[in-house]
Specification:
By secondary structure, the chain is α/β, with parallel strands linked by helices. α1 packs antiparallel against α2, α1 packs parallel to α4 and α7 packs antiparallel against α9. The chain is elongated.
Length: 607
Amino acid sequence: MGHSLHDGARTNELAWIEDIFAQAQQIATVSGALGLGLRLVDASGPFHRVQIIPLEEEWPTHVLLDALQQDVAPDDARAAEALGYHLIHADLGEIGAFTQAKIVLMVSAEHPLEPAYQLADALGALIADLLQVRQERNQLALDMIFEKRRAERFKRLAEMDHLTKLDNASTFRNKAQEMIAQEDMVHALILIDINHFKAANDLYGHAFGDTYLVRVAEAIRRTFSNGALVGRLGGDEFGVMMPLLPMAQAKVREVPENFIHEAMQACAKQILVSVSKLGKPGIGFTAQGCALAPFDASTFESLFEQADAALYSGKSRKGASAIVYDETLHGAFSNRILRKRFTAALSEQRLQPWVQPLVDLQSGAIIGYEALARWHDARRGVLTPGHFEPVLRDPELAPKLTDAVGGAACKWLGQRNDERDAPPASIWINPSVFEFMHTEFVFDLQGYLDQAGLDWSALVVELNETIMLGSDDGMLMRNLTELRSRGARIAFDDFGVGFSCLQHLREWPIDIIKIDRSFVGTGEIDHRARAVLRSVIDLGHDLGQKVVAEGIENIQAHETLCALGCDYGQGYFYARPMPCDEALGYVPDPSLFPNANRADAFSDIAS
């Protein structure tokens, strides 16, 4: 195009400036930039510097330079060079996150180009302002991007279990509900519970427990990697929501059920392999419960309840177990179904105590009766607590069970002691952890005893290691101390199967040790078992405690425990649990006991 700086007319000069600006704008548009700024930056000397500023990042500077050089007359170029100026000068600098290319055009000062300068300056100022606005706008956009990413990160942290990096319980529930809504698909909800996790955590420490949980989580994630939702639902409980196959392909329940059995077994194996690397014995066993949607339920709450019922039916089995829900087998483990039936049984007085005698191993006298809950069901007969275990874990239902069974057992014992010409016996009850933690617990027991006409010496309260969770100054300790101060006795049940039993013997107010049945067994007591039994019995006596052996089922075990000096015995060898009325007529065979005929044999029974 070749416009000269010596054309003379201001209009031509202004047009020249505008033409350069227009061409620069065109270059900017073609290159993808948003615009240019043209600004007078120096009016001193024979040449004036006009600055052209591209507004966008990564401006193609060489393209712009080539375009501007075509619009400079050769004479002007030579004149500028004679004065020692470079006609075109490029300078790159950083503005925030953008690149600024400064293009300097040398304009002759011999001609009065003030209007052009003013125009250039005005345009440059306008574009500079636009540049500032654009920079601020882009910075705001960047800030919004960073804030969005930050919000997404915080949201993910809120949805995630911080230890295992799985979804937490709330997130798992929400996502699982969305999956169940896909009615054309069969989904499996699997609940996985680590057997005896608390015991391992107490034995090896919390740091090991955390590592243990992480290993289990990784094993579950590896097993269910294709489209499955995996979450940590509680301390040692995990959940998997797994799409199986379209309903059109499933047709009948057995098709997905067979597949999910294999998947659960593979998961149990994967967990065992994973935690075996931790080098600790006896860990990695799990119980798994599964329910299928829509066959078992169409809502997450109902599906979870049924999977939970299957899970707890499997927890009664040894080792690893994987159970798919079956209403006929696991309905008793469903909280919703069980709650309704339990409430009806309470109102109809079909929850009653049965008792099992405890026998003095020297005299053969019955020193007490353990009260055991029995549910008289019209369809299934007499149910033991193993058939309604969720009741024992329910903070609302468990106290009602204790109230029904404990109160009736105390009333029966009061009548028995009044009517029979026999040494007074005690009643042994097993409250749940919820009663022990309640401020009114002692007063509830006082009510049972008052209604039965018994004093506190007739009551033995049993608790096991799983209940001993509070600190020395907690509600549990206060209730136990209050019970003993009133005259009741405290029995440590299932002694020997926990990991901190000796510590409990030292720190807790315990009067009686009940040796767990696993130490007695159903067969012959070998020399190792005999040594353990002797040690426990001697330990209890050294601490001033009476010792009871549970699970005595044969004459050899009876004779061994008598010879070792065990105080009391309980088991099928003497009597099975029986209705209270039948227990009134039970008398142990005196020929079995070495001191059955001694007059002083009953002297310490009540104490």
